């Protein structure tokens, strides 16, 4: 059985390299897209207040006086 497998791999060595390259490329792209998604999500969460907030912020430490 092993003789058949090794003979087949030796005969189709180029196809084996193409398969390995495709697997490597696929795993790399999945890992890179996951990292990019995480960075975008973290960036949006960090800037949520600025993105959805107003242009002016007012703060006061004393209670408002009735007019």
Distance between the termini: 94 Å
Mean pLDDT comes to 82
Sheet with the most strands? none
Strand content: under 5%
Name the shape in a single word. rod-shaped
SS-based structural class? mainly alpha
> What is the number of helices?
3
Cα gyration radius (Å): 29 Å
- Residue windows where pLDDT falls under 50 for at least 5 positions: none
Number of strands: 0
Instruction: Assign a percent range to the helix content.
Output: over 70%
Order of helices and strands: HHH
Could you characterize what this model shows?
The structure is a single chain. With 67 residues, this protein is mostly helical. It is 73% helix and 0% strand. It has three helices and no strands. It starts with a helix and ends in a 15-residue tail after the last helix. The mean pLDDT is 82.
Keywords:
67 residues, mainly alpha, 3 helices, 0% strand
Question: Which helices and strands, and how do they pair?
Answer:
Layout: H1 2-11, H2 13-46, H3 48-52
Describe the structure in brief:
By secondary structure, the protein is mostly helical. It has helices spanning 2-11, 13-46, 48-52.
């Amino acid at each position: 059985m092993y003789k058949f497998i090794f003979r087949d791999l030796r005969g189709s060595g180029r196809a084996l390299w193409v398969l390995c390259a495709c697997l490597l490329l696929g795993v790399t792209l999945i890992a890179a897209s996951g990292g990019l998604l995480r960075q975008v999500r973290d960036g949006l969460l960090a800037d949520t207040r600025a993105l959805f907030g107003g242009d002016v912020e007012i703060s006061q430490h004393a209670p408002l006086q009735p007019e």
